[in-house]
Predict the 3D structure of the following.
Amino acid sequence: MSKPRPLITRWFPAATIGAESLRDVSAGQQPPPNRLHVWWARRPLTTARAAVVATLLPAWQDPEGIQPHEHAPTRYPMDANPSVGSGVPQGESSLKLSSAPVLPTRLVGTSPSDSGQSGGAGSTTASVDRNQSSPPPSEIQELLNSTFGSESEYRRWFLEAIGIKGDPVVARQQIVEAVQSGNRIKNPYGYNRAFTSNPLPEHRQFLKTITYFQKDTAESNQPVVLDPFGGGGSIPFEAARYGCHGLTTELNPVATAILHGTVDLPFRLGEGFSETLSQWGEYWCQLINDRLARFFHRTDEQRLACVWALTVPCPTTGHPTPLLPNHWLARTAQQKVAIKLHPDSETGRISIELLGSATVSEGNQFTYKRGAATSVFTGDTFDGKYIASEAQAGRMGHLLYAIAYRPANGRGTQFRVPVDEDFAALGKAEQYLKVNWDKWDAKGLIPTEPFPSGSDNRPLTYGMLRWCDMFTTRQLVALVTAVECLHEVLEEASDELDLDTLKALNLYLAFAIDKVVDYNSRLTMWDPTYLKVAHVFSQHNFSLSWTFAEMEGIDACRWGLKQVVDCYRDISKLVGRAQVSRNGALLPDQVSAPLLPAEPTLTSATTLPYEDQSVDAIVTDPPYYDNVMYAELSDYFYVWLKRSLKPYWPELCRQHLSDKDNEAVSNRARFADMATHSGRGKKPPGAVTAQELAEAHYQSMIARAFAEAYRVLRDHGAMTVMFTHKRADAWNALATGLLNAGFRIESSWPVSTESEHSLHQKGKNAANATILLTCTKRGSSEPVWWDDIQSEVRKAAHEAAIRHAEDGLAGVDVTLASFGSVLSVLSRHWPVYTGNLDADGNRQIISPEVVLNLAREEVGRTKIARLLQGRQEYQFDPPTQWWLLAWHDFGAPKFPASEAIKLSHATHLDLETELRKSWRLVETKSGTAEILTPARRFEARAFQVDSLYLLDTWIDRLHALMVIHEQDGAVASRQWLGDRELDQSQHLKELVDAALRVVPRHRNSNGELALPEARTLESMRQTLDLFHDLEPPAPGIAQMDLYG
């Protein structure tokens, strides 16, 4: 019998969910799981819950059994629903859905027990013939009909079930318009963020009922949902909130610890544990304070941070000279505080003076800038090589030059210079570490593991050869003391607490230490604009700041404890019992029983510890190629966690460092010693580069993981994969793994999940949309030839580009969203043969990369046609098309050279010989392509401006005009246009119109357009008659609606 399609394969309100997901990470309002511990590239909870529920639910069928087309609108307006935004309390609905769905009469029977729980008084459950592989879709549809009555009500119920009770697309647009106009508006959403809405018992019960219909055996009808790449836990967390049996695996021990703290312990221990954590945590803090008090000079001030500068010996005097990129301590609208240095070249002492009303020139003073430093003693300069050599020789030090504090009256942040008592306290800490080093080292409390060479070796470059070298003496004393006191507290607590509570206490106090580790090392920074310590991983790397901040050691652990306690309490509220129904009546105990925790397991996604066909749905967010080196970054925390967790989590502490060999990332640093070619110059036959080896490793790991996913997934189940990467290489690896594992890609939905305010996104050519690919197990199919389906692929790419742009996507996101559509075509016909034979004489199977390249070409053609609004008479030459598409897709002058190559192929150009050497439109260096400005192209003699000869390409004509306009102004520009009979050129006007819309209009702090191309184009629009009637793009939302 046929099996019902998952809802997500036929309908998914992607635009609505994307707009709501952006609310998850609103500034200062991160969801509780995100605040518990640092983890990278987390998915929004709203996207996670929507993906889980839509993957489990069945699609609606029309009376003839034909299911709705997958290309339904991705925004679902809610204004037709009177309950939405009209004062209906959160958690209520206009739908008359009982606590258990009304089932078709012939399906009513007695359900097997669900983990020992019945459906509750008055509930109705289903029973079907388990000898059938799956009930007919008509029976599922009968259930939907009897429960909801219509497809529109089903869709409204879905949105309410995931917490969306308004139209976030409209609300977000209202916010954008208010920002543009400078107006303030009240919260336009009208309801709380979706993830804060706890699923009601009837939501969970309906998922169980649907799952029971689809099970192949008489067993629990609790949906089993797996995330084999658990990470920060968004997906298993939401699966468990919806009453599913959540399973999740993780290779990384830090992530596994986070998973236990997010998807396991809060479900088992409830909110009450927060009091236990708080009480024992306060005792732990007091032990730490008693031991550390002598190492800090205390006054009645509330110390916030000590501010330090790195130093190296002056090449002439040998005195430590500070490396200061600026002299600012505070640079806010209300406060301008800087320091002034008074060095004594005889003694080597540096006196610090505070400037309470510093000028810009005083604050912008520096002793280090752009790789060169200046000695404060002699004024001589020295370069970065000298700094690195001194650091590696162990001669890089640090100078305490200011202390930030809050006065006793609590008003604002103030600063003072360090006094003799501060330095005396530091001396005591240094002596204490010397005395205790051997004892602590013998106990394994000091992270002396060598820092491993990897993709980011800046710590090694600057002398941090061991993990403990990332901390000052006093920071190290404070952290080791915190771990030592934690072990003592756990030993005392063992007389009073049960094992589960002890394990939880151990875990969350370890997280409190990690909070301090993140904000208290030589890799932190004092931020003078926000007057706070910037944590180590403000970016996804080991970036080194020449000045850093030290948190007050006595209060740091108490601060970390409060952060963790508050976070735990907030998480536990999100998983609390739903004890009342919509009408306020108490629900049966069985329905409102506590949710079961998800089950984290420390293992690889390539070796899942589950039986064949034991999982109903897989929803996962796999690593994105080379996006984040999780294992390398997480070691910063793991070297402390494995010491903190040793008493009760030994299974997480057995690794020397986290496993990098089996990690599914493309990390060329891991293969540098195996490569037989550097990647520069001509490659000999048979040679292989580190990048190629890394790509092969990633593809192998992803393929093995998807093969395992196929094994454990039930035949009727579905897998939804979230993917956010702009490189076609990554998509090729993903598609190859899915196809070879036996999956068919059923649908592709782009969901905007990346905030434009993210430090990891802002100003970069990054994708803002997460693509949700939903797959089912592929049945048998007849092989086809590539020539037979090319037209189908082109059509799919063309339609996808138009559809997704009309739904609000822009730039590279439009191209990425089309990838899912064309891969769906490919998977439907797989295997697809090229018509050639491989080296072994077998029929050659096409690479998904070929299909993706064709999609890029077709999408590019569609984008250009839409830019010109269908006016075919104004088609541009290939170099001009490439320039427009590069700005449109990447929204930044710099982007990966590999992507520049693929874009050049899409426009039938060669990047090196044509775009770089002949037209000089781009430069490539160290794997990065950069679009050259008109001025730089002119300097490189790519074109002339003073000859009456008409230039060959339209981009040359535009750039020549821009150079004239920049250098000589509007009058000269008009003359130049007239001399070349371009002053009435509609073709040039169309090009300027397109350029205005694709070149980003970001503004700098002075309110000026940041990019020179944008400034010149806007000036031309305002001052030249040919362009005066062109509409300027809306400020602040360049490329937001290219196709409107």
Notes: The mean pLDDT is 86.
